[in-house]
Design a protein that fits this description.
348 residues, 4-stranded mixed beta sheet, 14 helices, 45% helix, globular
């Protein structure tokens, strides 16, 4: 049985209880993933729709060239009673989703393993790096190729961080190559000490009053620019070309008191809005009803997949009933991988 065949036999509802236990075990992911299981649901449906490929992707091919063994099958290791989730795979699922879906699962002959538990483990490992098979959304890809600033606040933030790096980093820690300096890298000289490591990573804590005040002002400035940059990015998205929102109609969002934004997507082509509403209602812990007084629901339809007016009207009605507040609706048709909905809840 391949991993793809396993996913076809198990529904997301069946593996959800075991998946929650995996998420709660790893504190590094925080509370958000326990509350927002819709991310795993979206990923699981993408995997079920994806066609497996036994061909080696660039990552696996590079591993093979470096002498790392490449497997066509993965062994399931059972430590105890499988109902408790005490199972593991003989190696981590790395590389493309298409390649991993084609791997054969070798089950132990002397023990019975719950398929739901095994599917939850495979889903957990496959989503460790990214929620989709789109390369530009990989955490590693974003780290190696960070997006360029798209608005004036992001430009100002990058300029400030570059200035701090160039003017306040001791020359001892600056790399020789220009490309490394552009990435704001730091190096440790030969014969470094523990004190030197601390100074390189956290800066010199032996500062006089004026330098402490400068650091405080810079941190406050960075917090402001990050917050305003995120808000401006939301405004730019809501008023993109072809949107039902006109330019300038959402500028008030730059000055809201507080807010919370969640993005939902639908791997399914048909009834995408119904799928997204189910994610909102059943797999996402929304803020308390009285916390926010207004909300915006902005739908970005994939080109050629705009929902019918009846489906849109039902979606609006259900979202208003779910949030129990005033909801403003907007939409646009764009070149995106999947239909997506941005839910923004706020107080003016």
């Amino acid at each position: 049985m391949t991993i793809k065949e396993l996913f076809k036999q198990v529904s997301f509802e069946e593996l959800c209880p075991q998946l929650k236990s995996y998420v709660k075990t790893y504190d590094v992911f925080g509370k958000d993933l326990v509350e927002h299981l819709y991310l795993f649901r979206e990923a699981y449906d993408r995997l079920r729709l994806l066609k497996p490929s036994g061909q080696l992707d660039s990552y696996i091919d590079k591993m093979q060239q470096n002498g790392v063994a490449v497997h066509k099958e993965v062994e399931v290791i059972c430590y105890d009673d499988s109902d408790k989730g005490n199972i593991d795979l003989s190696f981590d699922l790395e590389g493309s989703w298409e390649y991993n879906l084609s791997l054969e699962l070798v089950l132990p002959k002397d023990k019975t393993i719950s398929l739901a538990t095994l599917a939850a483990l495979c889903l957990w490992q496959l989503t460790y790096d990214n929620w989709s098979d789109y390369q530009e959304e990989s955490r590693i890809e974003r780290a190696l190729n960070p997006p360029k600033p798209s608005n004036k606040y992001e430009v100002a933030l990058e300029s400030l961080e570059n200035s701090i790096y160039k003017r306040q980093t001791p020359k001892l820690f600056l790399p020789k190559f220009k490309k490394d300096r552009l990435m704001r890298c730091k190096i440790l000289p030969a014969g470094f000490s523990e004190r030197m490591i601390h100074k390189c990573l956290n800066g010199d804590d032996r500062k006089n009053r004026s330098k402490r005040k400068r650091t405080y002002r810079q941190e406050k400035r960075k917090e402001f620019l990050k917050r305003m940059g995120n808000r401006q990015a939301v405004v730019d998205k809501f008023t993109m070309e072809g949107s039902s929102f006109t330019e300038g109609s959402c500028d008030y969002l730059l000055h809201v008191e507080n807010g919370e934004r969640i993005r939902f997507r639908s791997p399914l082509i048909e009834h995408a809005l119904d799928y997204i509403y189910t994610s909102m209602a059943d797999y996402c812990v929304l803020p308390p009803v009285a916390k926010f007084k207004e909300a915006i629901t902005f739908v970005v339809f994939k080109k050629g997949q705009v929902a019918s007016s009846l489906e849109i009207d039902n979606f609006k009605k259900h979202v208003e009933e779910l949030l129990s507040c005033s909801v403003i609706y907007g939409q646009v048709e764009s070149d995106v991988h999947e239909t997506e909905v941005t839910l923004l809840m706020f107080n003016r």
